[in-house]
């Protein structure tokens, strides 16, 4: 019998590439989208789902998958005056990037399983980046990271067949990687453009992620640039200094000053 993978955000850059990769591997791919009509060679079955509530999560679990990749994600493509995040966008990003992955993981923890279920949440190495590059996105991804490594061990202890794991990609060639430019001045734009131009294609990232899923690591990650690591160390070890650095970063990198 074919193994079943459920992939959310199937219509996007990484989702469609993951779908193709798992079809190539002989899996049955259930692609999840908010859209009711979608065609392509990257899923076997379309599952239309709003990805908001516990009922939406239960509907995905009814497919009885061996693997779930919670890949749907959103970034700030619209911002308010002076770069202030919009309430509606913040709610939507937080829901898809953090709340729904958490809900789906907890609903899965209730399942009575006699075979393994791997749940892979797609995070980002961007958490902790300067705020002009998209703070609401960073906040939701860091919350997701914390949830998976905080709640994952509890779920695994309660239900040995279920593993919550996290993969953190960096920039992938495609529209989402360009979205953070909407707050940037010329200097910031050049920094982002350099990362986007050097970003790998979706199919390369999908293959890397699928190979990683085959292994047993709990958190997988792109090799992070040293500058990203410095921000994370400061965030953890010197939070007040980190805030001051963000104030400085906003002045240096944003177009609103
Ligand atoms: N691209 C990058 O540079 C990059 C870097 C690091 C991490 N990531 C992460 O990788 C994942 C995939 O990124 P991507 O580049 O493939 O993004 P993408 O091309 O924008 O695709 C994301 C998909 O998620 C779904 N989606 C968006 N907003 C949603 C919402 N509010 N509720 C439910 N579904 C929603 C959309 O599918 P439907 O409209 O069909 O529902 C969309 O096609 C995301 O979690 C992203 O954060 C991406």
Q: Would you mind describing this structure in some detail?
A:
This protein has one domain: Rossmann fold (3-Layer(aba) Sandwich), CATH 3.40.50. 48% of the residues lie in helices and 14% in strands. The chain is built from nine helices and seven strands. The protein has helices at residues 13-24, 54-61, 87-109, 135-158, 175-178, 186-197, 202-214, 226-237, 239-253, and strands spanning 4-8, 28-33, 45-48, 67-70, 117-122, 162-168, 219-221. Helix 1 crosses helix 7, helix 2 (54-61) crosses helix 3 and helix 3 runs parallel beside helix 4 (135-158). The chain starts with a strand and ends with a helix. The mean pLDDT is 95. NADP nicotinamide-adenine-dinucleotide phosphate (NAP) binds next to helix 1, helix 3 and helix 5.
Could you give a quick summary of the protein structure above?
The protein is of the alpha/beta class and 257 residues long. It has helices at 13-24, 54-61, 87-109, 135-158, 175-178, 186-197, 202-214, 226-237, 239-253; strands at residues 4-8, 28-33, 45-48, 67-70, 117-122, 162-168, 219-221.
Secondary structure topology:
Layout: E1 4-8, H1 13-24, E2 28-33, E3 45-48, H2 54-61, E4 67-70, H3 87-109, E5 117-122, H4 135-158, E6 162-168, H5 175-178, H6 186-197, H7 202-214, E7 219-221, H8 226-237, H9 239-253
Parallel strand pairs: 1-2, 1-4, 2-3, 4-5, 5-6, 6-7
Helix pairs in contact: 1-7, 2-3, 3-4, 8-9
The structure holds NADP nicotinamide-adenine-dinucleotide phosphate.
């Amino acid at each position: 019998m074919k193994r079943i993978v459920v992939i959310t955000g199937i219509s996007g850059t990484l989702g469609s590439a993951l779908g193709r990769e798992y079809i190539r591997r002989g899996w049955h791919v259930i692609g999840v989208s908010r859209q009711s009509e979608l065609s392509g060679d990257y899923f076997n079955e379309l599952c239309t789902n709003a990805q908001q509530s516990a009922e939406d999560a239960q509907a995905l679990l009814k497919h009885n998958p061996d693997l779930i990749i919670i890949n749907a994600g959103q970034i700030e493509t619209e911002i308010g005056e002076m770069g202030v995040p919009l309430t509606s966008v913040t709610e939507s990003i937080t829901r898809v990037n953090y709340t729904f992955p958490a809900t789906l993981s907890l609903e899965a923890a209730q399942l009575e399983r006699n075979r393994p279920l791997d749940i892979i949440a797609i995070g980002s190495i961007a958490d902790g980046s300067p705020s002009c590059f998209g703070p609401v996105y960073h906040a939701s991804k860091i919350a997701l990271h914390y949830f998976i490594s905080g709640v994952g061990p509890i779920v695994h202890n309660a239900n040995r067949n279920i593993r919550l794991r996290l993969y953190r990609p960096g920039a992938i060639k495609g529209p989402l990687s360009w979205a953070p430019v909407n707050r940037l001045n010329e200097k910031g734009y050049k920094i982002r453009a350099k990362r986007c131009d050097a970003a790998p294609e979706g199919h390369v990232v999908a293959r890397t992620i699928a190979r990683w899923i085959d292994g047993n690591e709990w958190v997988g990650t792109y090799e992070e640039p040293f500058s990203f690591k410095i921000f994370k160390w400061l965030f953890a070890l010197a939070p007040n200094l980190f805030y001051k650095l963000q104030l400085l970063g906003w002045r240096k990198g944003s177009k609103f000053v």
